[in-house]
């Protein structure tokens, strides 16, 4: 698991963090057990330089990665920022697609290839662990990708990253691409192939999982899926998909899943960017049940409507939300939990009052139930 919350995530609108805040988040990522933390793009700002240096001075276990264009100044800045890192990685990238070559870089295929090789070689002078990314890979001619990746490996790259920079691909397409790249790139066996998916079509997680099926053994993702435009693949969703459907993927992660919700909440607090209620795994509704039929099923056996345990991702428990869609079983269950064991006629009166209340308010809380039973909000 390669976490880029502090680089690709942080560079998106509304998510910027100060160096000290990045350090706090890096501690949480290390606790979570990610394998690599991308700390920033040191050549891009003094703040990214300082944040990487701060993190490198403290965080020991995960590899720490700094981003860099295939340009000497950038690579030197990345190396300087990582001086104190125990496991430093320099991540060099260059755009490879025809659109980017022509309109962004003004470079030919040959020139891009040469810069990629020079970038990897120079980065290797500073660190053993070099990652190479072909930006906009999913809109690049496949024969050129094979050529660039083969040369990057020959120049010393040990991770080959295949970014879907604009979230354009589909699961079938990326699965096939990984299979063909791993079969066709020279020296592929010496490198780990990596997926980096953006969410412009809402497919980032599905595409990352498909890339794993195609042979990717590193995925790049962010907490809460923050990132450029619609974001990056959400770490918590990939981790739980691999845990819940592990047999299908034949691989897992070393993530302590109970730390997922705390990491999500911490990032929301630091950035001020909350997640939507219905967000998978970490949204407020992820383990909340309101419909009567669902609540009834849940009270008998939680597997009826839950495929993972809330406790396993950091929630205290599932939540039975009382509202217009709730039925007798759930209301009675909550009343009993509050200490109210009612005779049948009493319960019918309370349940009728509960339904009436639901015409006026969306959610009925414990204090509301207490008033319905006793007329006193403070009664226990
Ligand atoms: O999306 C992208 O292409 C990137 C690269 C810099 C890896 O973030
Ligand atoms: Zn990206």
Automatic annotation (TrEMBL):
Keyword field: Acyltransferase, Amino-acid biosynthesis, Branched-chain amino acid biosynthesis, Cytoplasm, Leucine biosynthesis, Manganese, Metal-binding, Transferase
GO biological process: one example: L-leucine biosynthetic process
Catalytic function, reaction form: 3-methyl-2-oxobutanoate + acetyl-CoA + H2O = (2S)-2-isopropylmalate + CoA + H(+)
Top EC class, one word: transferase
The UniProt record lists the keyword Amino-acid biosynthesis: yes
Thylakoid is among the record's keywords: no
Pathway entry: Amino-acid biosynthesis; L-leucine biosynthesis; L-leucine from 3-methyl-2-oxobutanoate: step 1/4
Necessary cofactors: Mn(2+)
E.C. code: 2.3.3.13
Gene Ontology cellular-component terms listed: cytosol
Superkingdom of origin: Bacteria
Residues annotated to bind Mn(2+): 8, 196, 198, 232
Domain Pyruvate carboxyltransferase: 1-261
One GO MF term: 2-isopropylmalate synthase activity
Family to which the UniProt record says this protein belongs: Belongs to the alpha-IPM synthase/homocitrate synthase family. LeuA type 1 subfamily.
Subunit organization: Homodimer.
Function as written in the Swiss-Prot or TrEMBL entry: Catalyzes the condensation of the acetyl group of acetyl-CoA with 3-methyl-2-oxobutanoate (2-ketoisovalerate) to form 3-carboxy-3-hydroxy-4-methylpentanoate (2-isopropylmalate).
Name assigned to this protein: 2-isopropylmalate synthase
Gene: leuA
Full-protein residues shown: 1 to 380 of 506
């Amino acid at each position: 698991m390669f976490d880029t919350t502090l680089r690709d995530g942080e560079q998106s609108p509304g998510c910027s963090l100060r160096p000290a805040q990045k350090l706090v988040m890096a501690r949480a990522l290390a606790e979570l057990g990610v394998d690599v933390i991308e700390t920033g793009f040191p050549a891009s700002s003094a703040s990214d330089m300082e944040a990487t240096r701060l993190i490198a001075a403290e965080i020991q276990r995960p590899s720490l990665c700094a981003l860099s264009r295939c340009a000497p100044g950038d690579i030197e800045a990345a190396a300087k920022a990582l001086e104190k890192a125990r496991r430093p990685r320099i991540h060099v990238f260059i755009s490879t697609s025809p659109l980017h070559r022509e309109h962004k870089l003004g470079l030919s295929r040959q020139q891009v290839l040469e810069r990629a090789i020079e970038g990897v070689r120079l980065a290797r002078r500073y660190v053993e662990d070099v990652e190479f990314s072909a930006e906009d890979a999913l809109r690049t001619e496949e024969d050129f990708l094979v050529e660039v990746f083969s040369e990057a490996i020959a120049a010393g790259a040990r991770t080959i990253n295949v970014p879907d920079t604009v979230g354009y691909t589909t699961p079938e397409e990326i699965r096939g691409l990984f299979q063909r790249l791993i079969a066709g790139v020279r020296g592929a066996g010496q490198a780990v192939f990596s997926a980096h998916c953006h969410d412009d079509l809402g497919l980032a997680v599905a595409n990352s999982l498909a890339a794993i099926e195609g042979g990717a053994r590193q995925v790049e993702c962010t907490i809460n899926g923050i990132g450029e435009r619609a974001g990056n693949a959400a770490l918590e969703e990939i981790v739980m998909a691999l845990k819940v459907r592990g047999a299908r993927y034949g691989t897992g992660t070393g993530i302590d899943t109970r730390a997922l919700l705390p990491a999500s909440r911490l990032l929301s607090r630091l950035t001020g960017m909350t997640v939507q209620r219905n967000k998978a795994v970490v949204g407020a509704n992820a383990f909340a049940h309101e419909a009567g039929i669902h609540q009834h099923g849940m009270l008998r056996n939680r597997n009826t409507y839950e495929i993972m345990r809330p406790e396993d991702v950091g929630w205290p428990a599932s939540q039975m939300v009382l509202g217009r869609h709730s039925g007798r079983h759930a209301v009675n269950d909550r009343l009993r939990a509050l200490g109210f064991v009612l005779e049948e006629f009493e319960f019918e009166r309370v349940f009728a009052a509960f339904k009436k209340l639901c015409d006026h308010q969306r959610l009925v809380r414990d204090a509301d139930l207490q008033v319905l039973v006793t007329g006193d909000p403070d009664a226990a």
